[in-house]
């Protein structure tokens, strides 16, 4: 039996491969029934997604691309909390000769106790690129929603961890291979 760290690493790899696949079923394969997806900064006013609404959201974004890759640049793991923080670049080719799309994000991923499922993703996105996508590429209802409000308090510990991990050390690293 693999240790929990190896199990978590495999789950994260499957998640990242799911993003890069442009296949909603592949992306959803590692999500738990308890899954929540939140996008920061809160100023974007994007709604919190469960598995079903995240599937719809992902389908809308995937429909914009001919090709897409989510490439991890740095990864930090908090074994005690089952959280992985990944700074990644996103590289894609937009459909209809839309050309290249480049941006970056930070994914704060909370895994299930077993490490086999993703319970939560808090995604801090490139605000300028998100607004550009909303304005020029997306359907009218894309990323429209009320403020996240009280949900930010729940995310606070993960954000604190991300800041400490990035600012204090690049030591507890395990870059995904």
Automatic annotation (TrEMBL):
TM helices/strands, residue ranges: 158-176
Instruction: Extract the SUPFAM superfamilies matched here.
Output: NTF2-like (SSF54427)
The record's annotation in InterPro entries points to: Fungal_Meroterpenoid_Isomerase (IPR050977), NTF2-like_dom_sf (IPR032710)
The name this protein carries in UniProt is SnoaL-like domain-containing protein
Q: Which Gene3D superfamilies match?
A: 3.10.450.50
Keywords tagged on the record = Membrane, Transmembrane, Transmembrane helix
């Amino acid at each position: 039996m693999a240790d929990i760290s190896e199990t978590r690493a495999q789950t994260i790899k499957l998640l990242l491969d799911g993003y890069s696949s442009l296949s909603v079923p592949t992306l959803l394969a590692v999500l738990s029934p308890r899954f929540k997806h939140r996008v920061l900064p809160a100023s974007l006013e994007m709604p919190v997604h469960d598995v079903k609404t995240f599937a719809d959201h992902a389908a809308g974004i995937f429909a914009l691309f001919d090709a897409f890759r989510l490439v991890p640049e740095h990864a930090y793991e908090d074994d005690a909390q089952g959280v992985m923080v990944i700074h990644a670049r996103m590289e894609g080719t937009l459909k209809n000769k839309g050309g290249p799309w480049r941006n970056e994000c930070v994914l704060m991923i909370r895994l299930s106790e077993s490490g086999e499922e993703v319970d939560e993703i808090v995604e801090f996105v490139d605000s300028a690129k998100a607004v550009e996508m909303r304005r020029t590429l997306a359907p009218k209802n894309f990323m429209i929603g009320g403020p996240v409000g009280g949900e930010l308090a729940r995310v606070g510990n993960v954000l604190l961890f991300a800041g400490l991990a990035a600012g204090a050390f690049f030591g507890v690293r395990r870059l995904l291979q």
